Amino acid sequence: MGRMDRRKDKRMRKKEEVVMKKKWNRFLTLAVMTGIVMLALAACGGYGIETGSVSGGAVSGQAVSGAAVSDSTALTVHVMKEGKVTIPDPADVEGSADVYLRKSPDDNIYDEEDNILQSAYKDFVVDLSFLGFDEPVFVSSYAVGNLTKATDSIAHVMTQTKKGIKEKEVEGDCLALFVTTGIPTAEDYKEYEVGHISPSYIVVLDYGAGKCYKVKTDFFLHNIWWWNNLEAIDLTGDGVQELVVQHRYNKTSDFGAYRIDQKTENLREIYSTRSEECGYREINEFEGTLLDDYKIKLEFPCIGYSHTISMVKDAGYKEEDLQIKNRVDEDGYRNYGTLWEDGVLKSDAMVALYTMDHVDYIKNKDGSIRVDFAWTVALEHRSCTIGLMHAYFEYDKLKDTLVLAGAKYVNREQAEKEWKEWYKEEMEN
């Protein structure tokens, strides 16, 4: 099971005859759009156009109906370093829709007194009253894809970089956004808990059908530059993508999946690690049992998984470091793994899936996705890690959610290697 390259995770391209039919129209659209971008950036010294990959960064939501637009609608998303966010109402768009978004700011957003500059966030605010928001909202992460239906429409994502404008073609005519209400002030952003006081929503704009969807979410905007990651991924293998949101907070990753129900036309959450009903239902069925000889049994009884590890061979601890006589070190701090006396268990402790290190996607033969949650396994505290548990989740059509389908333990040395590989990949993307 190899790691799926997200940049290559997209559906088969259009059939050759469809490509040839629409090729000329797409070329004209891109040429006009490129000219506009070049003129807008001329004052900054000009930018060249360069193709390459870019990335975006249990409640119900109702669709807001509007006039349908042709399936051939071309969606162009401009992701710029400067300028105002501009998002048209899908119901008002005829033909091509142009959306202007902002890239996440860098760390250079403070003045000499360590206050966040007003300019760092004011241009992220936009009027989305057509979605029912009474006040302007803060727009951060985005994703583009086929979130309502399979379509031949092509969206162009134009991202401003230091080297110029990178262009990427994405199948789909839907734009997903992470929207935060209750616009924070500069003082709020100095406090890292702004997300807890600012309600956030997942929004999907279908420019192919002229419809909008929104749903309130438990995820939040942690601060101005620490955005959630949005991706359009077909978790079910039915040809229509789901919207996946990830957020790393307090040394652990959170994951959520949303889909648009075609029968009810609702955008709703189908899985979330921030929801006890969904995310931790199966995870709480994990069991860890301490044994003699410095061993621990790791189990998921609900799927019949059981694996016994050694604190010495697998977790990398020395027997001397596990002796109960060493429970408190010379500085008065507790050593959490000190539970044995010459291999005999003398004390009890919690064995838990402590924090989720990262999430990966593995493609199954039927086209569906196996979601790989990589959990750190710890003994009592994160300072006493004993390896990594891969918990594999797949979509269950009858339950309409992700369910635990498999598990695999890797030792502490391998876990550290996987973390470094994942972190390197994230930094490159």
Tally of helical runs:
4
Tell me the number of structural domains.
2
Mean pLDDT across residues: 79
Helical amount: 10-25%
- What structural class is derived from the secondary structure elements? mainly beta
Could you give the distance between the termini? Answer: 21 Å
Spatial arrangement of strands, main beta sheet: 5-6-9-10-11-2-15-14-13-12
Q: What kind of sheet is the major sheet? A: 10 strands, antiparallel
Q: Unreliable segments (pLDDT under 50, ≥5 consecutive)?
A: 1-60, 65-71
Number of strands: 24
Overall, the morphology is: globular
Order of helices and strands: HEEEEEEEEEHEEEEEEHEEEEEEEEEH
Structural summary, described in words:
Helix content is about 10%, strand content about 40%. With about 425 residues, it is mainly beta. It has two domains: about 5-270, no CATH class; about 280-429, no CATH class. A ten-stranded antiparallel sheet has the order 5-6-9-10-11-2-15-14-13-12, with no helix packed on it. A five-stranded mixed sheet has the order 1-8-7-3-4, covered by helices on one side. A four-stranded antiparallel sheet has the order 21-22-23-24.
